[in-house]
Structure formats: structure tokens, C-alpha cells
Amino acid sequence: MQDKSRLRIAMQKSGRLSKESQQLLERCGIKINLQQQRLLAFAENMPIDIMRVRDDDIPGLVMDGVVDIGIIGENVLEEELLNRRAQGEDPRYFTLRRLDFGGCRLSLAVPMDEPFAGPHSLQGKRIATSYPHLLKQYLDKLAINFKSCLLNGSVEVAPRAGLADAICDLVSTGATLEANGLREVEVIYRSKACLIQRDGEMPAAKQALIDRLLVRIQGVIQARE
Ligand code: ATP
Ligand code: ZN
């Protein structure tokens, strides 16, 4: 059974945020043994448990109050927020701070040889994405109707495979787009990793630990600037 007095932190198990999330916690002085392929890792020197999961699960774990803190990309957080609101929920959490890694942008891209004269060129088109809510929020504001094709991977091959006319996907250098004959035409969301805390009552000792960690994180980030 879970020890409620220990601070539970969720981070990505393996992927683009995992190494830097782990490094950040270690630089804050948390001694964790993450060698094993375990879901839970226990800090040796502080009352902290680290839960390592898929990044997509982290916003929900925090919103459901299953973990106290999460390290997550704003893109995934915002998408889950919009997703839950669309289902009539009122998800709650606090953003403790934006972090200095995981930078990327969610962009629209079209085949290299397709003409593009602004977002209106996408009127009535089919767009492949893993972020249907962020995409809809953006295009709704511009009053552009579109059809979406939800793909949770290999989004960039959708136009070539005849599944969609355009894509809306995460980009950092643009090399993947280029390799797939696509060009980035519009940035719809800029993201970084961030630290979030669950809503609701927090035992004083746990909150004091969170506050101490935040001061250390501030120091770690400042030292890197
Ligand atoms: P998981 O197996 O945990 O679901 P994933 O494949 O969905 O992993 P990653 O590719 O590891 O996710 O990306 C995790 C996060 O890293 C993204 O949601 C985003 O916030 C950030 N990120 C930074 N740069 C990039 C990039 N170039 N492409 C994709 N994500 C990036
Ligand atoms: Zn994921």
C-alpha cells in the first residue's frame, strides 16, 4: 500500500524528457536508484517516491490526485486538459514552474509541393495529428473547418500514405519533416517541460518538501543559464 506521507513524483520512463527529468531530480540532491525496470523507485535520502510512466499518463495522474507532482511537456498537459474539458470534467492542478528542457513546437506541415497561403488553405482538408484538441482549438479560432485523422505515431507519413492532406505534429529541428517531404508552415503551440502539482489539501510536511525542492530547482536552472 502507498505510504501517503512520501512525496510521489511522476516522470517519463523512457523518451525525450526522461534523462533530463532524472538529472534535474538528482541535481536537487535526491538519491534514487533507477537502474531497475521498476514502475516505482524510492529515494534513499528523502521521503520521495518516483513513478516512471508513459508521458501521456502523467497529466491524468496529477489531475486525478494519484501522484503529488509531475514533470511533463506542456503540449501533453494542455491536450489532456482540453480532452477532459471536452468530456465535461473540470480538471485541476497547479503549474509550479516551467522548466528549461523539452523545448519543441507543435506545427502544421504540408507536402513540399502543396501550395500554402495561410491556415485558410487547410479549409475542409484532412489533418493527421496526435493532438486533436490543440489543433481544433487553434483552427476553431480562425473559423477553419477540417477533418482530423488521429494517429498516435508515424504522423509524418500520413500524407504520403494518402491518409491526410496535412499534419500537425511536434517539431524540434524540422529534419523529420524534411525527410518525409513535408514543410512546416505554421507553429500552433510552443512547449517546454513543466512541473505540476495536484490540487487539493497537501500535508504540511509534504508541502514544505515541495517548497524546498522548488528552491533547489530554481538554483539548478539558474546555474545552467
Ligand atoms: P512515451 O513512450 O512516454 O509515450 P512519446 O514517444 O510519446 O513517449 P517522446 O517522443 O519521448 O514521447 O516525447 C516526449 C515529450 O518530449 C513530448 O511530448 C514533448 O513535450 C517533448 N519533445 C521535445 N522535443 C521533441 C521533439 N522533437 N519531438 C517530440 N517531442 C519532443
Ligand atoms: Zn507519449
From TrEMBL:
Question: Taxonomically, which superkingdom?
Answer: Bacteria
One Gene Ontology term of the biological-process aspect is:
L-histidine biosynthetic process
Q: Which cofactor does it need?
A: Mg(2+)
Signal sequence, renumbered to the chain = none
This protein's GO cellular component annotations are: cytoplasm
Q: What is its EC number?
A: 2.4.2.17
Q: How is its activity regulated?
A: Feedback inhibited by histidine.
Q: Which residues cross the membrane?
A: none
Its UniProt pathway annotation is: Amino-acid biosynthesis; L-histidine biosynthesis; L-histidine from 5-phospho-alpha-D-ribose 1-diphosphate: step 1/9
Q: Where in the cell is it found?
A: Cytoplasm
Residue ranges constituting the ATP phosphoribosyltransferase catalytic domain according to the UniProt record: 54-219
Using the UniProt record, name the top-level EC class of this enzyme in a single word.
transferase
Does this entry carry the keyword Amino-acid biosynthesis?
Answer: yes
Instruction: Write out the GO MF terms.
Output: ATP binding; ATP phosphoribosyltransferase activity; magnesium ion binding
Which reaction does this chain catalyze? 1-(5-phospho-beta-D-ribosyl)-ATP + diphosphate = 5-phospho-alpha-D-ribose 1-diphosphate + ATP
Keywords assigned? Amino-acid biosynthesis, ATP-binding, Cytoplasm, Glycosyltransferase, Histidine biosynthesis, Magnesium, Metal-binding, Nucleotide-binding, Transferase
Subunit structure and binding partners: Equilibrium between an active dimeric form, an inactive hexameric form and higher aggregates. Interconversion between the various forms is largely reversible and is influenced by the natural substrates and inhibitors of the enzyme.
Q: What is known about what this protein does? A: Catalyzes the condensation of ATP and 5-phosphoribose 1-diphosphate to form N'-(5'-phosphoribosyl)-ATP (PR-ATP). Has a crucial role in the pathway because the rate of histidine biosynthesis seems to be controlled primarily by regulation of HisG enzymatic activity.
Q: Which family does it belong to?
A: Belongs to the ATP phosphoribosyltransferase family. Long subfamily.
Mind telling me what this protein is named?
Answer: ATP phosphoribosyltransferase
Species per Swiss-Prot/TrEMBL record: Biostraticola tofi
Query: What are the leading ranks of the lineage?
Result: Bacteria, Pseudomonadati, Pseudomonadota, Gammaproteobacteria, Enterobacterales
Q: Which gene encodes it?
A: hisG
**Full-protein residues shown:** 1 to 225 of 299
